[in-house]
């Protein structure tokens, strides 16, 4: 019985070379990382200077490698051969960056209303952010909500979801952070699916703020994961929605997790917001935390010239140049009410949710029961706040001046007497003999003190780095100046 033999076709030398090149290219494509294939294999060189040789520059690196900073190149060992000094200095550089804020007097809105528009499309399952985009975004949003309400006690936040080409309100506009955190903890309502519709999300956010007064700051924070938007077909396009956002003064900030999108950048530029593309996990957190401080309001110079001096003078002489005895400039007055807190007794019907709940607050105008403050009364429309919230809202209007860094030359001068301990926490400052010139880092960052001392320009007291951040981020009052 004859046996089957493998068929081996006759190959010409030319075809043999083609198959070998194809096999080599296929193996090259299967390997992880950038391809090392020669530029001539793709159709010849594009120049004689080697610019087309795999996209490499003059230093021999790939073109995409030039965008990233090699942070390990600036780290140097200390005298003992360790890297602890370098690590401490890099951490201090990152923490100090947030404390360096502009000291220019700006008009900021202390009453903010923000809708967080979250993209829950299938692209949120991608794992370029660890563990994935969905888990990381929820983790950051929980911390973001707590920090946002801590620095904006009179603000209100709502959450809108975009998935399956639709938008839905997950959390209505309110001032209770615990309700938002409880909703974000339930992942059964937050399953990503379908494609997002940026137009529907912005239209719903604008509609949810249409009843708010012009004295409050209307904002929308969009966390966009997809590279496209599936908007509905109809007479209204996203460009018309953009025009409506500009007329409604809805400041829109978009953070993209995939890449830059033209329509997203146009929306941010025309509405006065910010647009950013998150490179990694830490960069995403920085982009989110940049939206926590109240945005500056833009006014004409004639309306803001000498306002603080006139208000400080209280209408007395010398309040404004050449204005002897003139009254201070007129400002926009807002009606607020301070509620009466109810005891934790029997359950009564609230006017905001229509449910039986214990405790709550009574509106001082109409007497309706409210669950939490700050909020707007559902019956009479009065803004109900508490006095501690109102006092904390002035932090960003009158911030603590930035502390100056103490150079090594001044600290080592014998004519200057230095305090041995921090004025705030009474911790001992490091000895000057133990401090290196660069603390293990090749270039000292701007705003980071090489001696570990930060001095107040008013009271001339020295503080450590931890106290400096605590005073500017949490306390908002200089202990030395208050005494």
UniProtKB/TrEMBL annotation:
<keyword id="KW-0539">Nucleus</keyword>
<protein>
    <recommendedName>
        <fullName>General transcription and DNA repair factor IIH</fullName>
    </recommendedName>
</protein>
<dbReference type="InterPro" id="IPR036465">
    <property type="entry name" value="vWFA_dom_sf"/>
</dbReference>
<dbReference type="Pfam" id="PF04056">
    <property type="entry name" value="Ssl1"/>
</dbReference>
<dbReference type="InterPro" id="IPR012170">
    <property type="entry name" value="TFIIH_SSL1/p44"/>
</dbReference>
<comment type="function">
    <text>Component of the general transcription and DNA repair factor IIH (TFIIH) core complex, which is involved in general and transcription-coupled nucleotide excision repair (NER) of damaged DNA and, when complexed to TFIIK, in RNA transcription by RNA polymerase II.</text>
</comment>
<feature type="zinc finger region" description="C4-type">
    <location>
        <begin position="363"/>
        <end position="380"/>
    </location>
</feature>
<keyword id="KW-0804">Transcription</keyword>
<comment type="similarity">
    <text>Belongs to the GTF2H2 family.</text>
</comment>
<feature type="region of interest" description="Disordered">
    <location>
        <begin position="1"/>
        <end position="60"/>
    </location>
</feature>
<dbReference type="GO" id="GO:0006351">
    <property type="term" value="P:DNA-templated transcription"/>
</dbReference>
<keyword id="KW-0863">Zinc-finger</keyword>
<keyword id="KW-0805">Transcription regulation</keyword>
<dbReference type="GO" id="GO:0000439">
    <property type="term" value="C:transcription factor TFIIH core complex"/>
</dbReference>
<dbReference type="GO" id="GO:0006357">
    <property type="term" value="P:regulation of transcription by RNA polymerase II"/>
</dbReference>
<keyword id="KW-0227">DNA damage</keyword>
<dbReference type="GO" id="GO:0006289">
    <property type="term" value="P:nucleotide-excision repair"/>
</dbReference>
<dbReference type="GO" id="GO:0008270">
    <property type="term" value="F:zinc ion binding"/>
</dbReference>
<dbReference type="InterPro" id="IPR007198">
    <property type="entry name" value="Ssl1-like"/>
</dbReference>
<dbReference type="InterPro" id="IPR002035">
    <property type="entry name" value="VWF_A"/>
</dbReference>
<keyword id="KW-0479">Metal-binding</keyword>
<dbReference type="InterPro" id="IPR013083">
    <property type="entry name" value="Znf_RING/FYVE/PHD"/>
</dbReference>
<dbReference type="InterPro" id="IPR004595">
    <property type="entry name" value="TFIIH_C1-like_dom"/>
</dbReference>
<dbReference type="InterPro" id="IPR013087">
    <property type="entry name" value="Znf_C2H2_type"/>
</dbReference>
<keyword id="KW-0862">Zinc</keyword>
<feature type="compositionally biased region" description="Acidic residues">
    <location>
        <begin position="16"/>
        <end position="30"/>
    </location>
</feature>
<dbReference type="GO" id="GO:0005675">
    <property type="term" value="C:transcription factor TFIIH holo complex"/>
</dbReference>
<dbReference type="InterPro" id="IPR046349">
    <property type="entry name" value="C1-like_sf"/>
</dbReference>
<keyword id="KW-0234">DNA repair</keyword>
<feature type="domain" description="C2H2-type">
    <location>
        <begin position="454"/>
        <end position="477"/>
    </location>
</feature>
<dbReference type="Pfam" id="PF07975">
    <property type="entry name" value="C1_4"/>
</dbReference>
<feature type="compositionally biased region" description="Gly residues">
    <location>
        <begin position="41"/>
        <end position="55"/>
    </location>
</feature>
């Amino acid at each position: 019985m004859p046996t089957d033999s493998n068929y081996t076709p006759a190959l010409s030398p030319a075809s043999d070379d083609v198959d070998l090149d194809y096999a080599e290219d296929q193996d090259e494509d299967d390997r992880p990382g950038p391809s090392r294939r020669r530029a001539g294999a793709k159709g010849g060189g594009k120049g004689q200077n080697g610019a087309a040789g795999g996209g490499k520059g003059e230093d021999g690196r790939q073109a995409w490698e030039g965008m990233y900073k090699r942070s390990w190149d600036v780290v140097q060992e200390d005298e003992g051969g360790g890297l602890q000094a370098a690590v401490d200095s890099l951490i201090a550089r990152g923490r100090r960056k947030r404390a360096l804020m502009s000291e220019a007097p700006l008009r900021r809105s202390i009453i903010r209303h923000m809708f967080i528009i979250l993209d829950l499309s299938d692209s949120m399952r991608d794992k370029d952010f660890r563990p994935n985009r969905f888990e990381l975004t929820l983790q950051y949003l929980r911390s973001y909500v707590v920090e946002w309400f801590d620095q904006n006690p009179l603000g209100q936040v709502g959450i809108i979801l975009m998935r399956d080409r639709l938008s839905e309100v997950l959390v209505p506009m309110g001032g209770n952070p615990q309700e938002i955190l409880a909703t974000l903890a339930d992942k059964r309502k937050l399953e990503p699916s379908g494609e997002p519709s940026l137009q529907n999300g912005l239209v719903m956010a604008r509609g949810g703020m249409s009843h708010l007064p012009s004295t409050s700051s209307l904002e929308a924070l969009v966390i966009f994961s997809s590279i496209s938007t599936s908007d509905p077909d109809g007479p209204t396009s996203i460009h018309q929605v953009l025009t409506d956002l500009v007329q409604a003064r809805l400041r829109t900030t978009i953070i993209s997790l995939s890449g830059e999108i033209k329509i997203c950048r146009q929306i941010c530029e025309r509405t006065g917001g910010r647009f950013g593309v998150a490179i990694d996990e830490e960069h995403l957190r920085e982009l989110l935390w940049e939206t926590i401080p109240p945005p500056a309001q833009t006014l004409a110079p004639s309306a803001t010239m000498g306002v603080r001096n006139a208000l400080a003078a209280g209408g007395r002489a010398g309040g404004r140049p050449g204005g002897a005895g003139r009254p201070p400039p007129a400002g926009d007055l807002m009606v607020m009410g301070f509620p009466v807190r109810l005891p934790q007794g029997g359950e009564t019907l609230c006017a905001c949710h229509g449910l039986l709940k214990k405790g709550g607050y009574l509106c001082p105008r109409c007497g309706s029961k409210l669950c939490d403050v700050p909020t707007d009364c559902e019956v009479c429309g009065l803004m109900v706040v508490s006095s501690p919230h109102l006092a904390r809202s002035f932090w960003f209007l009158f911030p603590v001046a930035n502390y100056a860094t103490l150079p090594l030359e001044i600290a080592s001068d014998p004519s200057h007497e230095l305090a041995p301990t921090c004025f705030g926490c009474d911790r001992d400052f490091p000895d000057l003999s133990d401090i290196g010139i660069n603390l293990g880092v090749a270039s000292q960052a701007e705003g980071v003190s090489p001696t570990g001392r930060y001095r107040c320009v008013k009271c001339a007291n020295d503080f450590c780095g931890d106290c400096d951040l605590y005073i500017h981020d949490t306390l908002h009052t200089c202990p030395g100046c208050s005494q």
